[in-house]
C-alpha cells in the first residue's frame, strides 16, 4: 500500500462538516462541495478553504475573490451530491434549493446551518490544491439543529437535542 493510499484511508477516519462553497462576480457563479474547511483565527475571523486546482471552477473563485461557506444540514445530502457532480453545468447546481446573497454577492443557501460570507485574503498552492485564507465579512446562523458530516466515506447526521 502506498503512503498516499494510507493517507487517504486514515483521513477517511477524520469526520468533517460538509459545506457547499459558492462564489459569484465578474467570473460568474460557481459552487462545489467541500469538507476541507476550518477556522484559522477569530481575530480577525478567518476560515481556511481547500480547493483542488483541477476543479472546473478553481480559476473563477480566484478571479472573483469572494466566497461563501454554506454549512449543510442533515437534510442536504442530495444537495452535496449536486455540487460534487462534475457533469452538471454551474447554473444547474443553483436550481436546487433556495439561494440569497449577502455582502460579497456570493450565493448563500437559505436553509444552511450557517453561512460565512468571505473575501479571499491569501491563496497558497500546496500539492494539488489551493488553500484559500478567507476573511469573514458576515455570518448567518440558522436554528437548524442537525449538521451533515462525512466520516468513513459516508454521510452522517449529527446534532439534535443536547442531553444534560
Automatic annotation (TrEMBL):
Keyword terms: Flavoprotein, FMN, Oxidoreductase
Q: Which domain of life is it from?
A: Bacteria
Among InterPro entries, the record links this protein to: Flavin_Rdtase-like_dom, NADH-dep_flavin_reductase, Split_barrel_FMN-bd
Gene3D superfamilies (UniProt xref): Electron Transport, Fmn-binding Protein, Chain A
Flavin reductase like domain residues: 11-157
MF-aspect GO terms = oxidoreductase activity, acting on the CH-NH group of donors, NAD or NADP as acceptor
* Pfam families the record matches: Flavin_Reduct (PF01613)
Name the chain's protein: Flavin reductase
